[in-house]
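Project standup — Tuesday

K.O.: blocked on the structure for the chain from last sprint. Re-posting the sequence here as requested.
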Amino acid sequence: IFMTEGLSAGDQAKALDKGVANQALTVTTSIPYVQSGNCVLGVDVGDNVNILMNGASYAKSKLDFDAAFKFMIKEI
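H.V.: unblocked you, prediction finished:
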């Protein structure tokens, strides 16, 4: 589930809940969503590509990332 810019905190939480219920990944380019725990994965593209994962949201989602992918991400 791709979460776009401009969602309210309530809508972010609903999207995360929908993802958890369907074992679907929530992803965004809006890093504050990940920092607040309302999204599992965020991609920040600047001079470098940074992939951030909210550990609590990831645990709640019951998803299982491959070890090689986990190596490339930063958990917050």
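K.O.: great, moving the ticket to review. The longest helix spans residues 9-21. The chain has one domain: 2-75.
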